[in-house]
């Protein structure tokens, strides 16, 4: 049963989407009319309500719905990249995952979901406002117990060792790659997110010197389709370039990379 305090995705007949946090006496305005929170509280996910003369469907929000409505100051990692990052880093229950550059917490929340109740995510962020925003957004997903936030610049060092995976999303990644590799266990995987080609080139040069293996660079494109069966075709707009994703593996068996 849907309760006060729950988040509900309201999908209308014209495919408009509204993510609402319910509260007693609340009202949410739409182009079709007002939604009274009390009309939703007590119903079940999958039920139908009326907004004016139109029907609307009460759906349980998925992580993608939460990501696109995050309270944010920075660019989020898009779902098209996020899923690929998680698979390429082989994130699974029980893993220790380190990230640097919490941003708005979108990637943090995704990692927290996949490490499961036995895993842990450690998120480094040097800007306190960004860290608190990320912490708030992860809490909205109900995953805060799986994440440790650290207000620290990794230039000062990384506290953890033998991590399973590392995600690096900062403006100048090259000076920190040695610390990243030293925090990983042998065979640990990493991903470096770079918006521009010159950053990719610099990272590749540095990784070659540091002895990382299985290094790959990917750019992900996804094209959504219109679902009218009589006029099936691509959407008029698409998300183009978001970032280059550099993956690799640490192969040293214990000890630090010099």
Automatic annotation (TrEMBL):
Which spans of this chain does the record mark as coiled coil? none
> InterPro entries, from UniProt?
SAM-dependent_MTases_sf (IPR029063), TRM61_C (IPR049470), tRNA_MeTrfase_Gcd14 (IPR014816)
Which residues are recorded as binding S-adenosyl-L-methionine?
125, 153, 169
**Keywords attached to this entry:** Methyltransferase, S-adenosyl-L-methionine, Transferase, tRNA processing
Q: What is its EC number?
A: 2.1.1.220
Q: Which Pfam families match?
A: GCD14, TrmI-like_N
> Is tRNA processing among the key words of this record?
yes
Q: Which GO terms describe its molecular function?
A: tRNA (adenine(58)-N1)-methyltransferase activity
> Per its UniProt entry, what is the enzyme's top EC class, as one word?
transferase
Q: Give the reaction(s) catalysed.
A: adenosine(58) in tRNA + S-adenosyl-L-methionine = N(1)-methyladenosine(58) in tRNA + S-adenosyl-L-homocysteine + H(+)
Gene Ontology BP annotations: tRNA methylation
The UniProt record lists the tRNA (adenine(58)-N(1))-methyltransferase catalytic subunit TRM61 C-terminal domain at 57-230
Any single Gene Ontology cellular-component annotation:
tRNA (m1A) methyltransferase complex
* Quaternary structure note: Homotetramer composed of a dimer of dimers.
Q: Which family does it belong to?
A: Belongs to the class I-like SAM-binding methyltransferase superfamily. TRM61 family.
Function description = Catalyzes the S-adenosyl-L-methionine-dependent formation of N(1)-methyladenine at position 58 (m1A58) in tRNA.
Question: Could you tell me which PANTHER family the record lists for this protein?
Answer: TRNA (ADENINE(58)-N(1))-METHYLTRANSFERASE (PTHR12133), TRNA (ADENINE(58)-N(1))-METHYLTRANSFERASE, MITOCHONDRIAL (PTHR12133:SF1)
* Protein name (Swiss-Prot/TrEMBL): tRNA (adenine(58)-N(1))-methyltransferase TrmI
Q: Which organism is it from?
A: Kosmotoga pacifica
């Amino acid at each position: 049963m849907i309760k006060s305090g729950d988040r509900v995705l309201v999908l209308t007949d014209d495919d408009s989407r509204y993510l609402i946090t319910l509260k007693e006496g609340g009202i949410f305005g739409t182009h079709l009319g007002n939604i009274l929170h009390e009309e939703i509280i007590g119903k079940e996910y999958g039920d139908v309500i009326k907004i004016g003369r139109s029907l609307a469907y009460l759906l349980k929000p998925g992580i993608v719905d939460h990501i696109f409505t995050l309270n944010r100051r920075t660019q989020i990692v898009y779902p098209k990249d996020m899923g690929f990052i998680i698979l390429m880093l082989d994130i699974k229950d029980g893993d220790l995952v380190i990230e640097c550059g919490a941003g708005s917490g979108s990637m943090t929340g995704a990692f927290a979901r996949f490490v499961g109740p036995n895993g842990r995510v450690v998120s480094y962020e040097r800007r306190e406002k960004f860290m608190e925003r990320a912490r708030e957004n992860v809490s909205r997903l109900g995953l805060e117990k799986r994440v440790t936030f650290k207000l620290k610049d990794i230039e000062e060092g990384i506290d953890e060792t033998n991590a399973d995976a590392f995600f690096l999303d900062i403006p100048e990644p090259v000076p920190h790659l040695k610390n990243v590799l030293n925090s990983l266990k042998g065979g640990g995987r990493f991903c470096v997110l770079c918006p521009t080609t010159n950053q990719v080139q610099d990272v590749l040069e540095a990784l070659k010197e540091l002895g990382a293996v299985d290094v790959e660079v990917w750019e992900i494109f996804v094209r959504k389709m219109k679902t009218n069966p009589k006029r099936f075709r691509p959407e008029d707009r698409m998300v183009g370039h978001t970032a280059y994703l550099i993956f690799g593996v640490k192969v040293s068996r214990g000890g630090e990379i010099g």
